[in-house]
Amino acid sequence: xxxxxxxxxxxxxxxxxxxxxxxxxxxxxxxxxxxxxxxxxxxxxxxxxxxxxxxxxxxxxxxxxxxxxxxxxxxxxxxxxxxxxxxxxxxxxxxxxxxxxxxxxxxxxxxxxxxxxxxxxxxxxxxxxxxxxxxxxxxxxxxxxxxxxxxxxxxxxxxxxxxxxxxxxxxxxxxxxxxxxxxxxxxxxxxxxxxxxxxxxxxxxxxxxxxxxxxxxxxxxxxxxxxxxxxxxxxxxxxxxxxxxxxxxxxxxxxxxxxxxxxxxxxxxxxxxxxxxxxxxxxxxxxxxxxxxxxxxxxxxxxxxxxxxxxxxxxxxxxxxxxxxxxxxxxxxxxxxxxxxxx
Length: 343
Description:
- This protein is α/β, with parallel strands linked by helices.
- The chain is built from 13 helices and 11 strands.
- It has helices at residues 32-36, 43-62, 84-101, 110-116, 120-125, 130-136, 172-182, 189-197, 222-234, 237-242, 244-266, 285-298, 314-327, and strands spanning 2-6, 11-18, 22-30, 74-80, 105-109, 140-145, 150-155, 161-167, 218-219, 274-278, 302-304.
């Protein structure tokens, strides 16, 4: 049985995962309302909120019938990447519980948590045969898309992760949020932009797609944001109001197209046994549908992180720790690592 602790940004989370059965408990506190008025996450406020919330979540966990700390194999905790003061709070709480209960601590790379999250439903479907089912889906071509990361990578048969492409400036989620801000939408902008894009024409405005060439495996979104700003400066207020859904849909589609283009260029049907999609932006229905279309056209299985596991959560941290044990993978060092890379 694994207890996981996650606090890399503005989500405070605990989870219990049992390899024989799967997820048994999930606790998550969102700080969205706290940071909304600032238009983004304020690290100092986020760390204070973690400090106040962890004891409340732990109290909920301890009150659950049947929970016994003596049954824990280890405590998994996110050590990076993330906001340093927030990571520190999670690590401190994990260490304190480890000392109090006599349980070892297993450090976890937050990005590995996202990378493995699409496999959680595969495990729950048949825990006893997970090893065989996992092997059937590797190597996997995977995309991690969030507010801070845009990564295209391959998970090999040996469970190693190899980066194939990444952004040279803004992440896709950041581009959606900043584009939403230019359009006058509140924080968090990406979700609101998606809502406004519903019913809009994604081809009405022609926004740029960077690095379209097959041999240039990079992402870039700074030019897209600039293009939107210039477009809005040239438009009359009445046109913006009339074509608002089209603006949102066209901008969102430009973000999605760049992601899908690189996945299509890197995909090798003779090699890849599955396609994976994870991260906070993976909740975007347009992106999920686009990946489903690509998978359907190639006949390659698509593994999607569940919506509840796309954002930051402790379940993916517990599951990543389980995978590390299962596959004998090395653990990162137990210590604060705000800039820890995925590989």
